[in-house]
Design a protein that fits this description.
With 120 residues, the protein is mainly β. Helices cover 0% and strands 57% of the residues.
């Protein structure tokens, strides 16, 4: 089994910064993609960013230029540096990982989520 654990959420004022981290553990031989999603109450889960093991990163338009995703050297850890935070960034942030279970199939895993609240 695979487990993803997020850390780093909390309360921050508008314009502030937070750094989220996520570590994957368990029966992992390789990881194709790691990323972040978020979900605010009453809203659908929203894709935020992802990164491949080769370092190619993509961002949602709403967070471009403010958030930076990166992967650890061990390729089982992902970070999300969040700067210039806005109240609309308030959500539960979930880490995700796409892990191959065989040569033709991948499985998506999710962490338990960490709360980020941006408020004065």
């Amino acid at each position: 089994q695979v487990q993803l654990v997020e850390n780093g959420g909390g309360l921050v004022q508008p314009g502030g910064s937070l750094r989220l981290s996520c570590a994957a553990s368990g029966s992992i031989f390789s990881i194709n993609v790691m990323g972040w999603y978020r979900q605010a109450p009453g809203k659908q889960r929203e894709w935020v960013a992802d990164i491949t093991t080769s370092g190619s990163a993509n961002y949602a338009d709403s967070v471009k230029s403010r958030f930076t995703i990166s992967m650890g050297n061990a390729k089982n850890t992902v970070y999300l540096q969040m700067d210039s935070l806005k109240p609309e960034d308030t959500a539960v942030y979930y880490c995700s990982a796409r892990i191959p279970s065989n040569p033709w199939r991948t499985t998506n895993y999710w962490g338990q989520g960490t709360q980020v609240t941006v408020s004065s």
